[in-house]
Fold:
Amino acid sequence: MSTEKGPNFLEEIIAEDVNNGKHGGRVLTRFPPEPNGYLHIGHAKSICLNFGLAKKFGGTTNLRFDDTNPEKEETEYVESIKRDIQWLGFQWANEFYASDYFEQLYEYARQLIQKGLAYVDDSSAEEIAAMKGTPTESGKNSPFRDRTVEENLDLFARMRKGEFKDGEKVLRAKIDMAAANMHLRDPLMYRIKHTAHHRTGDEWCIYPMYDFAHGQSDSIERITHSICTLEFEVHRPLYEWFIEKLEIFASHQYEFARLNLNFTVMSKRRLLQLVQEKFVSGWDDPRMPTISGLRRRGFTPESIRRFAEMIGVARRENVIDFGVLEFCVREHLNAIAKRVMVVLDPVKLVITNYPEGTTENLPAENNPELEDGGGVRELPFSRELWIEREDFKLNPEKKYFRLAPGLMVRLKHAYIIKCDDYVMDDNGNITEIRCTYIPESKSGHDTSGIHVKGTIHWVNKSTAVPCEVRLYDRLFRVENPAAEEGDFKDHINPHSLEIIANAMAEPSLRNAAADDKFQFMRKGYFCLDTASTPDRLVFNRTVQLKDSWSKQKVSLE
Ligand code: ATP
Ligand code: MG
Structure:
């Protein structure tokens, strides 16, 4: 995949505006989340774009919470959103809330009433919908459309005072019930909701609609480039109509194609269902496409920013393969992760010619990708080890380069061993593998002259740290769960989480810190889970070493 890209269409637009001295060459963007859920990877694209564009042109970005739906919004979401944006590496110039502008928006609405451009409608939601018409058929004027300015001002004031019940009245813009663009058919500006708001409490019982709040908020903040996803393109004429009629600062809206990712869902409404119905452990479940889920899974901010850059921005909708996201994190972790050894499915190996009661410490490079090898740690080595059960075969096929009776392998960072014998229990399970080692074959000092094709990882038994390891797969079995018939939750992958309760880790992992990234050699990239405790280490697999979806075998280096 090509990773070098020319300027995208938004960069071109902004560059031209800056060159032409529009807004004095000033660039101010905003990221406008609704605090009704946690941010997901689609939001990350929007964040990288808004903050990235502003930065590129010496501008800044506001964080504006679009909090005009009181019943769905919560402070918990506000806090999580701020945490996630900062974790991604961005800092907003100002933190604003659409609710900061409720008084100003109310005043704007009164101005439109005074200009004869807005009216109070007593019709029910059903009546309004019925009068709306269809894309091919004009709508009908409401019987309340010709109320006088005085009557409208009075009714609107009484709506605010709380004299009417929810749904009894709305304020509508008076535009054109025959407009080809349905959004211009006298759109709602305000509705009555006797619901407490997470910031304004009971101060308001009327709340502005998105279309009346968003553009005006942009304008109040003097946003120069208001960037949103393509579904808002049809709202743009309305965005411009309000600004024009109110004669306020003319922010401009630009649209780009949203991020669609396969094998997951990305609307907050659906993600909330997964949380509430306990299909996942929470918004930050490592299988969730949320930023907090990806963070807990072990993704780095760099890898997500790189992903955003790699997928680019366009005006054409497409679906990005989940593997692209995994590619980005794998590439970054390959560069930074400490190489360690953990045995996920342990079987005992005894080196019969190694002296009993002796332990030697073998030096092991932490990261061969780094120039200095990432430093060196010491690995205890003695007579009894753990190795992976799958690294031993009783009846190996040709070209099998791991352990089997009579075969030799190298133990990583240690010695070449030869398998002499094994112990099997009554059920046919191997319980012990018996080998001899070649003392002259020590890694870095090998004078044995023996060449073996396979290298396997191992953990010293007496110093091993038992731990839990969680392996993840796609959360859904189908590419586009939201598009399937029926409930999207019917398509959840029942094997998306595999818990390995008794893995054995090398002792250095006792000191693992929350932010550490590890490559468990031959097993993938891992990080400590937030549920880990010093007494019970829990690791998450972030991603496999290679794309498991294009059939592969983990190589033996
Ligand atoms: P959702 O449908 O997931 O709830 P939303 O659009 O309702 O998303 P908002 O909080 O309103 O969520 O979105 C904040 C910003 O993030 C908006 O500018 C929106 O266009 C952008 N955004 C949301 N989803 C995506 C996506 N999949 N790709 C790119 N940008 C997105
Ligand atoms: Mg929204």
Notes: DSSP finds twelve helices and 25 strands in the chain.
